[in-house]
Sequence to fold (773 residues):
Amino acid sequence: MTSTATIPTGRRRTIDPGLRRKRRREALRNLAFLSPWLIGVSVFFLYPLISTVYFSFMRYDGFTAPTWTGLKNWQYVFTDYPFFWPALRNTLWLVVVMVTLRVIFGLGIGLLITKVKTGAGLFRTAFYLPYLAPPVAATMAFAFLLNPGTGPVNNILARIGLPQPGWFNDPAWSKPALTMLALWGIGDLMVIFMASLLDVPQEQYEAASLDGAGPWQRFRYVTLPNISPIVLFAVVTGVIQTMQYYTQPLVAGKVASGVIGGSGQQFEPGYPDKSTLTLPQLVYHLGFQRFDTGGACVIALVLFALAMVFTALLMRRGSGFLATND
Amino acid sequence: MPGFNRALLATAAVALLATACTGTSSAPQASDDATKDVTITFWHGWSAPSEVAAINANIKAFEAKHPNIHVKAVGNINDDKIKQALRAGGPNAPDVVSSFTTDNVGTFCASNVFSDLKPFLDKSSVDLDKTFPKALQDYTQFEGKRCTLPLLNDAYGLYYNKDAFKAAGITAPPKTLSEFDAAAKLLTKVKGDSFSQLGFMPNFHGYESTTTHFAAQWNATYFTADGKSNLAADPAFAKMLTWQKNLVGSLGGFAKLEKYRASFGDEWGAKNPFHTGQVAMALDGEWRLGMAKEAGVKFDIGVAPFPVPDDQADSYGKGYLSGTIIGIPSTSQKQNAAWELVKYMTTDTDAVVSFANAIHNVPSTLDALKSPELDADPSFRTFLEIAQHPKSSTTPASPNGGAYQLTLQDFAFAYESGAHESGKVTDVAAGLARTDQQIDKDLAQAK
Fold:
C-alpha cells in the first residue's frame, strides 16, 4: 500500500525554489497563527518550569546571585526539613478524603436538586451561595462556629449530650473540619453535576423503567454512564485544586492558634501539631519567609510531579471507565 | 553531531535565560546630593489611626528641618511585603524601611539587602555607645555588620489585675517564679470543667507567653561562639521548660487550659483576656497600657517586671526586649537623603521622645530615656527601667531569621502537651539536643 521513493546515491534531491518559498511562507503563517499559544506556553509554563528546576539546584535568597549547590536543596527538603513529610501526608489525606467526599456530596446535592419540583431555584441558590463566600471570610466563620470553647456547634453538642471535638484546635479533627468547610462550599460541583444530570436523555430512564429497573439500577446503568466524563472532570480538577490548597488551612491554623505573629512570636506552621500544613504553605514559608528559593523550588517540583502522576493515573483509569461505558 | 550541537546550544540558551532573568541586587554608591530637592519613600508598619498620625507628625517635623527632602510615607507594611519589594527592586521600591520585628535583621544584613550604615554613622559622627543601649545595638546588627538602627523599643513585663490581687489577699506583685506560681494558683477560680478566672495562661500559645519571652528571665544563650545551637548545653532552656510545664500542671493541665484559651478574644483587640478579666496576670509589652485604657478596662492595672527564677532574685527588674528597626535598602538611589531621615528618627532626642510618647513605646536612645519630656505615667516608667536593666536581653539575629525560634517553639509545643511522652522524645535534654540538631541543619541550609 505504501510506496517508497528511492534517491540515487550521490545525488541530492532538488526542490523547486518556488515550492520552497511557498512552504516557508506556509510554515511562517502557521507559526504566526500558533504564536499566541507558543508565547503563552513559553512565558507562563516553560520558562517558570525550567527556572524552577534550575533554582532547585541553586542557593538563592532573591537578593544575591545564585550559586550552584547540587543536590543540597533536595537532600534538605527530603531528609532535614521537618515540615515536608507531615505536609505531604496532609496533602495526600486531603486528596483522598476531601476530593472523594466533595464529588459524592456534589453529585448527591445535584441529584436531589434536579428532583425537587417546587422551590428548586431557592435550593439551588442556597447551596450555591456559600461557594461565593471569600475563602478567608468563610474559614474565619467556620473557626468561630467550631471554636471548642465558645462555638455554637459545641454548645449544641454539649446540650444534647454528645462529645465536643476540638475541631481546628485538635490535630485529629482539624482536617475533618477543613473537609466540612469544603463540603459547605460545594456550589461549584453542584452546578456542574446538575447541568450534566439534566442532560441525561429521559427516554433512557423510561426504557430502563419499562425493563423493570429500580432507582439504584437506573442510577448505576443510566445516570452514571452518561455523567462519567463530568465525574472524571470533577475528580481531576478536585485533585489539582487540593494540591494547591493554601488559604483555608493557613487561615484556620492562624485563627485557631490565636497567634497572629509579632516580635518574638513565631507563627506555627500547620497549627495544631502540623495537622493543617500543606505543600503550598511550605513553598511560601521557604521561598518568601526564609529566603530559601532553592528549597521552595524543590517542593514546587514535588507538587508538580504529584499532580502529573495523579492526573495521568486518573486519566488512564478514566479513559478505561469511559470506554467501558460506550 | 548537528543534533547534539543544537541540543547543547538549546541547553546553554535555557541556562542563560534563567540566569539572565535572575534579579540580583548590587549596592549602589551613595552618591546622591542630599541638599537638592528630593522625594524619598518610607515604608513602615503602623496602621492604627493614632499611630499613623504620630508617624506623620514625626515626618512633618523632619521635613520642616529639611525643606528639600520630601517624604512619601506608606503604612501597614509587614516583613513579607518588604521582602518581596526589595527582591523586585525598581523605581517604586522604598528608600527607607522600618520593621516591627528584629527577627530578620540577620537575613537583611547577611544578604546585603540593607546598606551598611557604618559609613553614614561615621560621616555624621554618631557614637553608637553614647547613643543607644547595648541590647538595642546588638539586635540591630549581625556578625559585626550594622545594617539597621533601633527606632523605639519594646520591653516586656508583668501586668496584673489589682482588684483580683486584693480579692485573693495578695499585697504585692511576685518577684520570684515561686511567688508567681503561688499567686497564679491563688488567683485561679475553677468553674465547672473550666475557669471563671485564670491566674496566668502559661501555655505557649497564650499570646505573649512564648518560649523566647520566658527564656529571657534565665538570660538564655541561644548560640555558641561559633554559631551552633546551644539549647541543650545551656541549662536555662531546660529550666524554663520544666517551670512552664509544672505551672501548666498545677493550673489544671494542658488540655483544660487549651480549651479555656480557645475562648480568648483577639490579642490586639478590646477582648484581650487580660482586659476581660479572664486572666488576672499577663506577660506583655508596654503597649498594653494604652490598649487597656482604650478598651475601657474597669479594674486597676498593676505593672511590674516579670518575676525571675528564685536563684536569680538579684536580677529582678530584667525582661525581654525587642523593638522596631529601620534601615536603608541597598537598591535605593537616594541613600544620602534616606540617611538624613533615618538619622533624624533614630537619634534626634526630641523626635524619639515625642514619637515614643505618642505611640506608648519605650524610646530607643540613652538621651531620650533620660528626657524630662518623657511620659510621666509611673506604670510606663516601669518599662523604661526594664529597658535599661543591664540583664535585660533579646533574641539574637540569625542568617535564616527567626527559624531557630520556630524550631524551639515546635519542641516546646510538643513538650507542654505531653506529645513527647508518647514517643517523640524521652526527656527535655534529649528533646533539646534534637532541637539543636534541627537548628544546625536549618542554619547549614541557609549558608
Notes: Confidence is low (pLDDT under 50) at residues 1-5 of chain A.
